[in-house]
């Protein structure tokens, strides 16, 4: 899993639908997730820390959890099927942990409010992310190619631990 942060909310230039943009902590990959307008407002409001006169749905959810001594541990975006992202919110009460199925937009809105980490499975990153720092990616590929070019078969066997005595 890769930890990600909310980089912000954007608007799709073609469809005019909001997108929440997650970015890895190294700022190498970004994951765009198309969301609804209400969820975009909820996430953006939490990022900006705007005080509200009345609690919104995600605030109400956290108030319920807090009243019962339940902590939001993390959010995990774990799958992408037929262009739909899937997520869970992990909550705990004492020694008991439970993963709750959630839409990623709701899970992210809760995570921002609860100040808990957002994780994304590597398979989802590989399938749906976009590069943010292509120069760093290319430098990493170049360094790896140089490493392989200098590596002899004997060194490879030695480094792999497959040497026979």
UniProtKB/TrEMBL annotation:
PANTHER family: VON HIPPEL-LINDAU DISEASE TUMOR SUPPRESSOR, VON HIPPEL-LINDAU PROTEIN
GO molecular function, one term: nuclease activity
InterPro entries for this protein: BFN_sf (IPR036104), Bi_nuclease_dom (IPR003729)
Superkingdom to which the source organism belongs: Bacteria
Name of the protein this chain belongs to: BFN domain-containing protein
Organism taxonomic ancestry: Bacteria, Bacillati, Cyanobacteriota, Cyanophyceae, Pseudanabaenales
Domain annotation BFN: ranges: 1-132
